[in-house]
Design goal:
Length: 316
């Protein structure tokens, strides 16, 4: 039997290293199945990310200038667009995982098939995404205010204190946010009412927050290293664009060809698409971490029930 056709037990106790290994294996053994199942959503997420980048780049202001109401509205709109792209991409990945949990192996889904189920997954993901986007926006605003206050004090000590305070806030928030990863997967792969799944997943995730943290940290480091290679054409195009703009400011003619804007756009979209595709292993690593935690929790509940039964028998 081919390796890609072997069934893999999802709900099995694994170390964080084994979770990452299985997450990489999921993508490495089934690249075409994953790509063919996800490509419209990969393209959507890539286009939304490119739109977000273009929107941010178009809002460059001189030092000390402030955004107008239209600029703020445009920034919020671009933030919503990139969030929508991520929402549908993640919902489609979760659909792939749902089929994997049922069959024990990756299965190709028609590119435009099961759209209704994808939308249903997206609706369940929406509260998590809104919380994440609001938290990021709020933390960035807090960081901006803290650094502005520290800059006005004109002392290095206040600047260091502001940085330490921001790191402390981020770490404390991380302790309570990490269990939401387990809640998210439990809502997608578990059975039951939404709020009950959220509560159960959060309780279990909080007990295993260390495992979730280490799994995501190491998987993110691997993604960063691979992503640097994948995004190399993007860095080359960005460098060429920067040097060209610097030359124009110095009075030199533009050194880029007339088709360079189109080349830049295509390079950005393709690079983002490949980065999202490689990033699937971040999701799959968390999938196996979810399965491992669920298996450990089931063992824990079985042992607790056995102890309760023995205690009951002894008392009787």
């Amino acid at each position: 039997m081919a390796q890609s056709e072997q069934t893999i037990q999802l709900f099995k106790s694994r170390s964080y290293a084994a979770c990452i290994k299985e997450g990489i294996r999921f993508l490495a053994d089934n690249p075409w199945k994953v790509f063919r199942s996800l490509w419209p959503y990969l393209l959507l997420a890539a286009l939304c990310s490119w739109f977000f980048y273009v929107s941010i780049a178009s809002l460059q202001l001189p030092a000390g200038a402030q955004l107008s109401a239209v600029g703020i509205l445009w920034l919020v709109l671009s933030y919503v667009v990139v969030g929508a792209g991520m929402l549908f991409f993640t919902a489609r990945v979760m659909l792939l995982f749902q089929r994997f949990a049922e069959k024990g192996r990756a299965e190709r889904i028609g590119a435009f098939a099961l759209f209704g189920q994808t939308v249903a997954n997206a609706l369940r993901l929406l509260p998590f995404l809104l919380f994440e986007m609001l938290f990021i926006a709020g933390f960035l605003q807090l960081a901006s205010l803290a650094m502005s206050w520290a800059a006005k004090q004109q002392t290095v000590t206040m600047l260091v204190c502001a940085v330490i305070a921001l790191v402390a806030v981020a770490l404390i928030a991380l302790v309570f946010i990490l269990p939401l990863v387990q809640s998210l997967y439990h809502c997608q792969l578990g059975q039951g009412r939404f709020m009950q799944l959220v509560k159960t997943g959060y309780r279990r995730g909080f007990r295993h927050k260390g495992k979730i943290f280490v799994t995501n940290l190491l998987a993110s480091v691997l993604f960063f290293l691979v992503g640097m290679l994948v995004a190399m054409p993007l860095f080359i195009v960005m460098s060429a664009n920067i040097f060209s703009n610097v030359g124009i400011l110095m009075g030199d003619p533009s050194g880029t060809p007339s088709y360079f804007p189109w080349l830049t756009a295509i390079t950005y979209v393709v690079s983002f698409l490949l980065l999202y595709f490689v990033g699937v292993f971040l999701y799959s690593s968390n999938l196996f971490a979810y399965g491992s935690i669920e298996a450990q929790e089931q063992e824990r509940e079985a042992m607790a029930a056995e102890r309760a039964q023995i205690t009951s028998q002894m008392n009787s």
